[in-house]
Amino acid sequence: MPELHVLVVDDDTSVRHACCSIAEKMGFAVAGADSVAQARQILKHRKIDVLLLDLKLPDGGGLTLLEQVKMLYPDTAVVVMTAFATVSSAVEAMRIGARDYLTKPFALEEMTTVLERAGQRVHFDHESRLLRERLRSQKDTDGLVGRSPEMEKLYRILSKVAFSTHPVLILGESGTGKEVVARSIHFNGPNADKPFVPVDCGSLVPSLIESELFGHVKGAFTGADRAKEGLLAAAGGGTVFLDEIGELPLDLQAKLLRALQEKEVRPVGATQAKPISARVLAATNRDLTAMVEQGKFRKDLFFRLNVVNLRIPPLRERRGDIPLLAMHFLARMEKETGVERTLSDDSLRLMADYDWPGNVRELENAIERACALSSGPVLHLGDMPTQLQDLRMQRKAEAVSEPVAAEIAAVESVRGVLTRDGEIVSIAEMEKQAILNTIHQLKGDKLLAAKLLGIGKTTLYRKLKEYGIADVPAE
Fold this sequence. Notes:
A hairpin with a 2-residue loop joins β4 and β5 (60-61). Helices cover 49% and strands 15% of the residues. α5 (108-136) runs parallel beside α13 (322-337) and α13 crosses α15 (359-373). The protein contains 19 helices and 20 strands. The protein has helices spanning 13-25, 36-45, 62-72, 87-96, 108-136, 149-161, 178-187, 206-214, 231-234, 250-262, 288-293, 299-305, 322-337, 345-353, 359-373, 386-412, 427-441, 446-453, 457-466; strands at residues 5-9, 29-33, 50-54, 56-57, 60-61, 77-82, 100-103, 168-171, 196-200, 215-216, 228-229, 239-243, 264-265, 274-275, 279-284, 308-311, 342-343, 378-379, 417-418, 424-425.
């Protein structure tokens, strides 16, 4: 990652020099400007990664320069600072595109924290762009995707178990890719040319699981008009993957244990056992240790399957892999549809902030949905699923909640306020002004205003109706 460039714009010489000194000590390449005009000249001839901008400048407002920067240099992270901080100016700066803000006088620690945060965001944006270019030229595969420390640890274990014949227990939440891990073990092992047979123990009817796994002879039960080879035998020297092994009934757990120990199965209705040579991999999203203690899973089978166990980390524990996975799924979609798409930086940042309770499967579905709804080659925030839109609203609220909350707190702390004429303002009037001012500052966004004010949207609309106001003009 190249050295990051910071431009400090402030007409106060002492503040400007102090900010430049701090940024230089943090490893940034620094330039300073004392006016809007000088800042424009520097921005025109030099790439700036982080702009530290005073909102009160002698030759024009900082907000105007902020608007121009976001239009002409959208990749530049802007941090605004001012000794004239108001609710409206802070909210407006954040809405235009400022990443953060500082209120003068600020402490050294505040300055350092804000610059570190801005630098990390610039690094993230830079890496996401490089990643898109790198993955665009790579061959799309259905294998494991990820470079996080958690995934590197998983790769190390996989490289050791792939060439063994021991059972492996794969643990992980739903959607983390347990079957992908099982396929990776099989297809990177010595028997990759043999069958890989997945069995979903949770989706099979209990009365048919035994027949599916062990097979049956003709006439073994009603409807058995011909013999059927069980999956454990049909896999030959390949791999049988028992997904959701925790759903297997207790009586079948005993038969599976015997099959693993004796390397043979006895089909339903048969008198003779058949040898098996398949390797068994099992997976579950349940806590088998707790199930053993509760008597819901056989302890001896658990120990038999748990010779080696692999835990696949949930997506929220390897957020650095989210851009990789997203671009991987986009590449797959491009291969299927022939349409090339990419993700905006804002979309990637939001995806990295989201917890993904459905893990990799949920991420894949989100990408497919965005591709289906997008009207262009770039997938924007508006193309993302509802759960990500909710997170976007939450982040938006957090960005403006502090300055708005300060005004609300000031209003709530007062029980009677004298006007210029010496009259007392009622609490109802103060409530009205708090509501109207908040809606003004949020450009008419009533839903966000209700959220920040801590009232329901129905209450907000009722209040506005009481005030005889159909719509509140934005500032």
